[in-house]
Structures are given as structure tokens and as C-alpha cells.
Amino acid sequence: MARRDRLIDDAGHLHLRYMRDGRRTFQHWARAYAWYMLGLTRALTELEQLPEELRPDDRTMADLRAECVRIAAVAMRHQRGDGLWSCFVDDHTVAPDTSGSAGIAAALAAGARAGLLPVDCGALASAERAFGALLEHLTPDGLLTGVSQSNRGGEALQRGDYRVISQMGMGLLAQLYAALR
Question: Per the record's keyword annotation, is Hydrolase included, yes or no (predicted)?
Fold first, then answer.
């Protein structure tokens, strides 16, 4: 079983973790989307630059490109009216997570800039909208508020309204800023 198949269930839902007993956890968690999408986008961008003889076969590359487009469409479908993504992207009753939002938007912008996403899919506009919303969460000294805390507290803590300031969130916002330039 490929690693990606472990994180995505038969219905196409992304999870943070796959356990050895077959269970998956943190379905639709925003930072899982951020890391998955950024990893896929960054890897594809690098693979596209390789000489053809060093790249994976055409079928694998086509599969990776299709997954990049698919997961971007899923993420954009779940973007909230305020431009951010909920901590669990499919549940808009859950507070937004600025770190997950920054990472998802960074992947959308990077994918659009690299030509991995269709020009007319709205990825760049979605990323720009998220960037504008994220700026409202910056403190005067440049810290990003509204970050969901460590997932060690379990899903119940993530579904609550408690949010923190985290350098990880700031790093994801910096990636978004760079991808939009």
C-alpha cells in the first residue's frame, strides 16, 4: 500500500495518520491538508525539473498531477466565507486554524504558479483571499494568532475554540507570502 493510500480513505477523505491496525485519525484536519498539499506540490515541482530519464514513469507523474488537482479542488470547496479554513476543513462550525489555512493557501499558490493547477480553477484567487484574512491575525510584532495547538490533545481539543500563537503558523504564512510574490 502506497503511503498516500494510507492517508486517503476509499471515499477520498484525507487523514493525518494511518495506524498499523488500519485506523485513521484526524479526518479533514487542516494542517494535514497543508502538509499533504505542500509536500505534493513541492515534490511535483522538483520532479518536473528533472531530466525525463530521472523522473518517475509517465503514469506515476500523471497520477501525482491528478491528485494535486483533486486535493486542491477539495480544499477550495471547503474554504470559509472569511477566506480561512476550519481546523477540520469540512466542518464550518469549528473555529478556523490560521496555520492550516496558511499552508493550504501556500500550496494552492505554489501549485498555480508552477502550472500544476488549471489556470481557471481559482487557486490563486483562493490563496490571495486567505492571505488577506491571515493578515488580520498578525500581531503588531509579526506573530500569527489563531493557530490550532498541538494535536497531542486529541481531536476534541482541536474542535474547540482554543487557539495559540505558533512559529509553525508563521512559517506557513511566510511560505504563502513567498508563493504569492
Answer: yes
